[in-house]
Amino acid sequence: xxxxxxxxxxxxxxxxxxxxxxxxxxxxxxxxxxxxxxxxxxxxxxxxxxxxxxxxxxxxxxxxxxxxxxxxxxxxxxxxxxxxxxxxxxxxxxxxxxxxxxxxxxxxxxxxxxxxxxxxxxxxxxxxxxxxxxxxxxxxxxxxxxxxxxxxxxxxxxxxxxxxxxxxxxxxxxxxxxxxxxxxxxxxxxxxxxxxxxxxxxxxxxxxxxxxxxxxxxxxxxxxxxxxxxxxxxxxxxxxxxxxxxxxxxxxxxxxxxxxxxxxxxxxxxxxxxxxxxxxxxxxxxxxxxxxxxxxxxxxxxxxxxxxxxxxxxxxxxxxxxxxxxxxxxxxxxxxxxxxxxxxxxxxxxxxxxxxxxxxxxxxxxxxxxxxxxxx
Length: 376
What we know:
This protein has 14 helices and 12 strands. By secondary structure, the protein is an alpha/beta fold.
């Protein structure tokens, strides 16, 4: 793109998402793969979809419809099995989202890092019986109701720690980049509500849960997408007494193999997985191939980082160590057909709700999908 044209567009008030799309498209337009595709007249359709997990308020849905972000992960219907988790309640949610011309693709289960913020852990994670059995029964009913309401996927998290971070650092243009440096992290209090959790305890609780819910998900054909531990912690040291077994690639491989099913897989947070790696700019592509070729990636948090294991910043989508165009090509290569969602965008001065940051990311993702779709 011509520099003067770029400045005119920016000065003219072009939306952040449109600007990102224009910039990214310009970056890839002259690529050899793109030229080859155009010269041969062969264009392969990419299956990935731009999605959002911003919620489902009317305001958000109108904006997403305008952006062409057509697939939605809703907010949590309720923290307990109640009317909002009924077939009628979930159907009304789906129908309201569809009234905006959008698709309800994913609903979160009441198993997330938000519990940690409220100093609560579900009994599923605490391993308390019979309380955890009642909670698992509720989850199974949520799966059944989700299927009957015509919603294809549920996402969840099996963490004791939430999302630990250290003090934010300055990034491009003075934006605040969420940062984690293990050696600076305060492990306070030294233990979570669950007490010491070694790897065996953690795996027992994961396995207990999966053995009871995956058969129900398989019967009702609802995908269960689990988010990895963000961030991974050093083996043998852990964090606040917890050995984070879902914070490594090997742990995620074990996780998806516990119950073999087409309905048991990952909410694949590319940023979180990159945080597990020593050299994410080199290693992430083979990790995507491993899980993607096995159809274990159900949806993607498509974000970038700078740094690596135990010391990283969460950057703008185009400002990290991972070549995001190359990553998008790998998702196309493995036939991934789910949502690509932005996540954890940097904070820009004056952008209170990070809406500008997300608009930039949406536009960039749309442009990357369009670019790889045009490549032979």
